[in-house]
Amino acid sequence: MSKVHPAILSGGSGSRLWPLSRELYPKQLLALTGKLTLLQETARRVGDPARFAPPLVVCNHEHRFAIAEQIRTAGSLPCATLLEPEGRNTAAAVAIATLKLVELNGPDALVMVLPSDHLVRDLAAFAHAVDVAATAAHDGALVTFGITPDKPETGYGYIKRGAEIAAAPGAYKVDRFVEKPDAATAASYIASGAYSWNSGMFLFRAGQVLDEFARHAPAVLAACREALAAGKSDLDFVRLDAAAFARAPSLSFDVAIMEKTDRAAVVPVEMGWTDVGSWSALAELGPHDADGNVLVGNVVAEACHGSYIRSEGRLTAVYGLKDTIVVTTEDAVLAAPMASAQSIKQLVDRLKAEGRPEATSHTRLHRPWGWHQVIDVGDRFKVKHIMVKPGESLSLQKHYHRAEHWVVVAGTAEVTRGDDLVLLHENESIYIPLGHKHRLHNPGMVQLRLIEVQSGPYLGEDDIVRLEDKYGR
């Protein structure tokens, strides 16, 4: 059997998991269920070199450095990382990934599309399902993975299976796709035993799916061909052409292809799957205490039942809650009934409409060299905690409206200030006058941490004039 080429799709904002998941640092980049992030779990899932080739990644350009670092630390090296200038839904993402994999491996390459934000706990069942799907895909089928349902879930689409495919036992022709049903209809699906949840994972032969795009979604295919052909290399990434990519109709792969093709197949599988799409989904994963609560982080709960309570640092003390979600971060607190978990996106949409920065970004902003986090802000001053990874550097830059004072609290800093090069150790500091060119570099083998105090009439992040930048920003 030929190796399968994973295409990991890392788009979306995971707004139903706000305030932990945000547009600039969405849920796939978070460690929600263990030590690894959902993206790293996905990369590890397709890490067996006997079964899988190196993955291809499609992601938002804003997330590129975080994604590259997380996949590297998961022990994987992508064959390519394609940067979407804007989100155009999954049909365009699948088309662009397939076109690139055909370019690298030819039209007979087996492509497996994987969302980066799903959780799979039974890896043996997953691997077996991949083998079954690969057999069907060799025979020309476009295979979706159908999750065997354990409850009448109304938040998922369903697939009704038809006749078994003789050449691929365990794979079935798709009888029909069904949109998210009401509770009574979902219960009837469960009782029939003929339906699976639509997982959003697919496996097909690359040339076959491009033929289906040409037949059913030619505008998507044409825009993606042009976007890839006119794309530019940027370090380890490929920047797709923005104008061409924007011409791709915004359609899901299900709607554009799977619901129209006569080659759709499904492999039903029980593999401990969840799309981790809401706080209630995380609450189901546990572990639960004696009162059915899930408590994560610095939490004290008294007389609470059936609740999900999570703190990302500060003490969160709750009393007398039942079936409630409480999540606290550095800059926001969410409290909602468990039954309203799917509606939190409406709250995030309102925050965005009001222009609140908490809707899209955390106080800690990740950069290719490390991160910085705002500690305090006042009239004409801002205080930040900065971490620089070993061997990394910020850009050579200057500011027109602010001066900066750096105090090293851990590690060693090599500072360019004007024409001078200064080495600073723990508890030493330096002043960067307004308008002076400067650069911060970590020459050591451990993290560099420092406190930065900015002062001046304007302290916005756009007051940065980059003179040199190794990351091409």
SSE blueprint and pairings:
Layout: E1 4-10, H1 38-45, E2 56-60, H2 64-73, E3 80-84, H3 89-105, E4 110-115, E5 119-120, H4 123-138, E6 142-147, E7 158-164, E8 172-178, H5 183-192, E9 195-205, H6 206-216, H7 218-229, E10 232-234, E11 237-239, H8 242-246, H9 253-258, E12 264-269, E13 273-274, H10 279-285, E14 294-296, E15 299-302, E16 308-311, E17 316-319, E18 324-328, E19 333-337, H11 344-353, E20 364-367, E21 370-378, E22 381-388, E23 396-398, E24 403-410, E25 413-417, E26 420-424, E27 429-432, E28 438-441, E29 448-455, E30 465-468
Parallel strand pairs: 1-2, 1-4, 2-3, 3-11, 6-12, 14-16, 15-17, 16-18
Antiparallel strand pairs: 4-9, 5-13, 6-9, 7-8, 7-9, 8-12, 10-11, 18-19, 20-21, 21-22, 22-29, 23-30, 24-27, 24-29, 25-26, 25-28
Helix pairs in contact: 3-6, 3-7, 6-7
Describe the structure.
The chain has 473 residues and is of the alpha/beta class. The chain folds into three domains: 4-274, Spore Coat Polysaccharide Biosynthesis Protein SpsA, Chain A (Alpha-Beta Complex); 279-353, no CATH class; 364-468, Jelly Rolls, CATH 2.60.120. The strands form seven sheets. The chain has a six-stranded antiparallel beta sheet with strand order 20-21-22-29-24-27, with no helix packed on it. A five-stranded mixed beta barrel has the order 6-9-7-8-12. Strand 25 (413-417) and strand 26 form a beta hairpin. The longest helix has 17 residues, at 89-105. It is globular.
